[in-house]
């Protein structure tokens, strides 16, 4: 039975939270075909290669991608076009089109980071290197791990500048000294919120 796009999207949206708990995130070295294969496994219990997937399995795999709130404009556009096309169009999307569309969306995301006036030297350096590498893997790696680490580098510099200020309060100095070796998340919270709460 041919499933409509609406039914597929509803099913994929309903299943996405559960599927995300069991499916690894799109890693820097993972090809979209592995995502498609996982989708096939979720629908029929087998690890079906893209070339062997039925039309319904192909549609479901693409619907899962469309249901992902992190899918950008490029991925959404190409996924919609694949669903409107032939079975071969859907296979081609899952095998190569998804990866290239994700790369397009990742490049847009990196350009936005570079355009942010609050991006520090570390973030700017790593974002520029990711773009200059010119590969989907480099862009994905930056967004998944490199950005977080580069932001932490910039945040440590910001904390060091706070500590270099001879006029800061004892409470702020103590808080900055405690946080400077913290996790990227702790550093970010301190820069955005914590430093302003210390002297209240």
UniProtKB/TrEMBL annotation:
It comes from Streptomyces atrovirens. This is ALF repeat-containing protein. Keywords: Signal. Residues 1-27 form the signal peptide. Pfam families: ALF.
């Amino acid at each position: 039975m041919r499933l409509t796009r609406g039914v597929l999207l509803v099913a994929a949206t309903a299943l996405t939270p559960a599927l995300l708990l069991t499916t690894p995130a799109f890693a820097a070295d993972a090809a979209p075909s592995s995502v498609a294969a996982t989708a096939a496994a979720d629908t029929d219990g087998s690890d079906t290669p893209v070339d062997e997937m039925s039309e319904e399995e192909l549609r479901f795999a693409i619907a899962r991608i469309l249901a992902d709130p992190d899918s950008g404009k490029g991925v959404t556009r190409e996924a919609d076009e694949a669903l409107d096309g032939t079975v071969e169009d859907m296979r081609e999307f899952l095998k190569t089109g998804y990866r290239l569309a994700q790369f397009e969306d990742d490049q847009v995301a990196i350009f936005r980071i570079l355009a942010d006036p609050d991006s520090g030297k570390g973030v700017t350096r790593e974002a520029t290197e990711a773009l200059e590498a010119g590969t989907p893997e480099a862009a994905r790696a930056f967004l998944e791990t490199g950005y977080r680490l580069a932001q932490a580098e910039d945040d440590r510099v910001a904390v060091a500048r706070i500590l270099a200020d001879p006029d800061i309060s004892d409470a702020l100095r103590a808080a900055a000294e405690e946080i400077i070796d913290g996790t990227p998340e702790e550093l970010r919270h301190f820069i955005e919120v914590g430093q302003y709460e210390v002297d209240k």
